[in-house]
Amino acid sequence: MSAPAVSVVVPCYNGGRFLDQLLKSLRAQKFRDFEVVIVDDGSSEPDTIARLAALPPDIRVVRQANAGLPAARNTGFRNAQGSFVLPLDCDDALEPSYLSTLVSALQVAPSDVGFVFTHMRLVGAITGTFKTRFDRFDQLFVNRLPYCMLLRKSAWEAVGGYDETMRDGSEDWEFSIRLAQAKFRGIEIALPLFIYMVRADGMLLSKTARLQGTMWRNIRMRHKALYRPSALVKCWREVNGQWRSALSAFTMLVLSRLLSEPRYNALCFRFIGFARGWRVMRGHLTLPAGTA
Q1: Hey, what CATH topology would domain 1-91 get?
Q2: Consecutive 10-residue runs of the chain (292 residues): their mean pLDDT?
Q3: pTM score, two decimals?
């Protein structure tokens, strides 16, 4: 049998309770030439172990000792048979037209287009729509890309995969910066086809939003050359040259140096909606109690 066009890679650590909804979402896809690779990242929960053991034979399960989300994604990508790969966490979902829309776009795109992404429909603790975008300069300061995007497997290989030491979050942000530096471009599909579950105990609210400043500092430390003034000016001129963008970047850099890390984290969390570019296309974003 020929290899599938797409491999959907699902890291799973004690997430068995989400698998039924995830697989329902994938079964509903209009595009059918894909495989599902679930990476059991050392689950210890009996229910998850039982659910993984009972999966139908068309779902591949790859098991490893617990190594964290970025390592699980890398393991899944290494085992992927498709030339296109899609990371999808087990508590999220896709609209039925997601794969058909993105595969069509990536198949006809030039080889330097390494990924395609959509806007996000938020459900759970926060509801509304998040308009994603990709700008090589802005991405150095604020992550506006979803982790879930259709990638050429060759692009993932070219940049060395996800940084497996970033177990506390923002591994997708750092990965996208390396994609940009490798001159890969992205295509935006301006439709909310990716359904992102926001949970009170999930990564966004429990870590990413609250430790935004710490995570950005870690990224800057990993890519010091990119944040030198001369490199930033060169990138800004090449990419957008907009003064508003430069002012926002300069403000972030100054505040990150003037404020203590806890205060900078608190500032980022309080204004996370503005800083990350929330846009509501329908309805309203509703923050859970205590986060305003």
Answers
A1: Spore Coat Polysaccharide Biosynthesis Protein SpsA; Chain A (3.90.550)
A2: 93 94 96 97 95 94 96 97 96 96 97 96 85 90 92 97 90 95 95 86 51 80 91 87 78 77 67 42 41 40
A3: 0.86
